[in-house]
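hey so i finaly got around to running the thing on 5-amino-6-(5-phosphoribosylamino)uracil reductase from Fusicatenibacter saccharivorans. pasting the sequence first so u can double check i didnt mess up the copy paste, my clipboard has been acting weird all day
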Amino acid sequence: MEHPFVVCHMLTSLDGKIDGTFFGVPETVPAIKAYGELRSFYGCQATLYGTTTMLGGYAEGKVGQLPTVMSTPPRADWVNPTGKAMGNFIVAVDPQGQLAYSGLSIEKKGRPAAHVIEALTEQVAPEYLSYLQNQGVSYLFAGEKRLNCTLLLEKLHRLFGINKLMLAGGGIVNGSFLAENLVDELSLVIAPVADGGNGVSSFTQVDFLPSWPPTAFHLKEVQTVVPNVLWVRYTRP
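ok and heres what it spat out for the 3d tokens, dont ask me to read them lol
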């Protein structure tokens, strides 16, 4: 099956954290700016986030209790043609159907508006499908109880024409793609700050998902993009 080229693009501390108090110190500011500017380097049509990341600044919280509807849509993929025509996408991994939206797209400061595509599993309530269609949000089914990343990528390529996808966390969803050998390139912008807290790393293993062995990458390039900030690129062998 054909699927998009996947680059995992992350901002980390010196000790490999992707969240934590280091984001709030002045020394991290140049790294945050460089990370944002480097997003355009890959020319990705879509960025994929996990549920926690979506709740952290993209979705409008959680939907809560949805009203019962007389007729629910079939449990099949749904593509909003207006959203598809935008050509720029945010893919939200939302296995149980929790995320709320104000419309068919999300527009972050400094970025073009992106149509939302929900990545669902068969656990989702039928009322949530009606909710997404009313909001104009496209959705794809990819798995029964946990996300089938390979199937999701195949559908993104076939139904939306996505050839390059940026994987941007969190650690659990990144690890899920790595477990299925789907990360083609790893891009790390490293802030010159050690955190030492309990934040997660770029790839995280959890008990409720299958474990995966250590995965080797080959160093492709290292640059000092601004003083004290490294951009390190790795590819799969």
